[in-house]
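Help: read this over?
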Amino acid sequence: MGGKKRTRNRNIISKLRQSQIAGRGFSRGTQLPEALLQERDKRAKWHGIPVLLQELYESSHLNSDFTRTHTVLKELSSLLSMEAMSFVTEDRKTAQESTFPNTYTFDLFGGVDLLVELLMRPTLTTLQKPKMNDDLVKDCLSVLYNCCICTEGVTKILASRDDFVLFLFTLMTNKKTFLQTATLIEDILGVKKEMIQLEWIPNLSGLVQSFDQQQLANFCRILSVTISEPDVGNDDKHTLLAKNAQQKRNTSPSRAEVNQVTLLNIPGFIERLCKLATRKVSEATGTSNFLQELEEWYTWLDNTLVLDALMQIATDEAEHSSTESSDESTLATIPLRHRLPQSMKIVHEIMYKVEVLYVLCVLLMGRQRNQVHKMLAEFRLIPGLNNLFDKLIWRKYTTSNHVVHGQNENCDCSPEISFKIQFLRLLQSFSDHHENKYLLLNAQELNELSAISLKANIPEVEALVNTDRYLVCDGKKGLLTRLLTIMKREPPDSSFRFWQARAVESFLRGATSYADQMFLLKRGLLEHILFCIIDSGCKSRDVLQSYFDLLGELMKFNIDAFKRFNKYVNTEEKFQVFLTQINSSLVDSNMLVRCIVLSLDRFESQTEDVKVVEVLSECCLLSYMARVENRLSFLFRLVNIINVQTLTQENVSCLNTSLVILMLARRRGKLPFYLNALREKEYAEKYPGCLLNNFHNLLRFWQHHYLNKDKDSTCLENSSCIPFSFWKETVSVLLGEDRTSPCAIIGYIDEPYMEVIDDLVIYELHSRPLKRFFSVIYV
């Protein structure tokens, strides 16, 4: 008998699932007899949800005043809300159907479809009908959001309905329903297969302009999904082969790029974001207990809906309160739970600044970069951030700011950490290869750069001369100088070091500027970097890579930097530690190797300068690289650690560094010697043809990759001070087909070991499907 009852239960669920698949919508639960549902309810542990859904459906007819509808929905909501809260506080368990049976049952019996129909009813009929009140709309949205986070597949189903997604944006015009709408949209867009086009949103410009500053900050959470290129989710897709093939297929702008242009065309949009990013935050709770509270609240406020709901409560409390004490001693006597609203206000502001900075950062990296740069400068974003630096972005406090969160030491999950990292990423994007980088200085620091150039008897950089003094930083220190100050205080393995080094390095990238280098050298940056590499015990490969790259930009062609290096690395033991760090990962350190090789080549042509001759003879680093066997050792390993199939933006610099070594050898007529050394190395390792065939393939790829990319070729030329024409010419010589040529790779590969490869094969490599911070491209 029990078996028959279980079978009947399974039959009911099977029919419901079939109607779900058939797309019969919210009515599927109403087609079952109420008596049958009540009979099976207790045994199936449905908690009366199917019956309540029938009542919800019947009470929401066209002529209803929705009073009973709202009452039933509240009853349903109470059954679902605890599951949603449990989901938020238990790290989003994956076994959702079994863990959250009420939400699953609600969806199974058509609850999600019914709420969607109820919300969209005004767009589906022209008949006059009672209007749904705001509270009912809010509850519908909240229940839908709970279903999205607790029941697998609901979000994707909603995301597949473009009409519903676009309809949700129309609800954002109502301030009372904005919060719930924004949170639901954010969740839906996060799983949508195809990115939404912002221009599809009815009256987008008017919608955005109607937002107050808080709503606009909230809206940035949604925008971040619509303007970022989707993550492909597979590391092999990040190879240059895969990316080049993708670019061949996609010749038109991506949806993310189109959305970026749409946003830039909204009047006043960028100006308002700049104001949001730079507005001050109330510090009423004081600094002594701020971080402790921040961490306590964030451990359970992982869900933005909960956070915003609390913020809304806090705002309501503030409106009904005639006074609010900001005295820290008074606050200390109040229980922590009663100080929640003020703490939430600060967390709230920090979290939204993260989103605003992210949107600005993405726009800075897009195709409209110059237009964005011009607006950010005009609206004084950098001076505004400089004014916030000490009081908000990097406040002075005793609690360690490199707390390990969870099990990942590089976790950027807390609002405080996310805010700092996003700030550093913005500085990196702002400075990288752009003349506006001098806005990170104040007027006095600009004068210092001019004085350095005058003393060295070299012309000032044109970008420096053209910098508008009204747009630079105010105060005693510019943003770059402040960044250097806190950089020196960071613990050795702090994840912030990586981002700090990247931000400072971006200021130096591009055409080498002696004045820029000296400005940083005078502030002890080189000694700080060497301490971190040699003496600090830093083990993080990411941090070490960022410091190697920064050191390379800081020392390139600068004889004073090499003199300072030799003064710090004043023992053989220190020098060996330094070399060990370099050799431990050439992918991480090859940009520094390239800097040393290039600098040595220039210094050797300046032997009339007494200072240069002195440093050449005394500097252990230059003496080490001057020995040909050491340059050959680097060349062997650089060619050996990469191949065409594994090239990425991270390691393609190894190919270009090997090319630099060979270009300089060619200038001095020693290219045949280096090629023959590669051949001898192959035979010594008993792998004849291995190195040279691999290098030949890499250079064929190099031609296809770089000859059609103006930006990348310009970067190569600026960073090396070698005309790109010489790069192209050297590659062509190396790939020559005449086996008798002393400079052609093919002449050093014995015929039995020769791999046959031609343009057709290279093209197939590009097109072959292969199984990824905002990453900086190092070329």
In short: The mean pLDDT is 81.
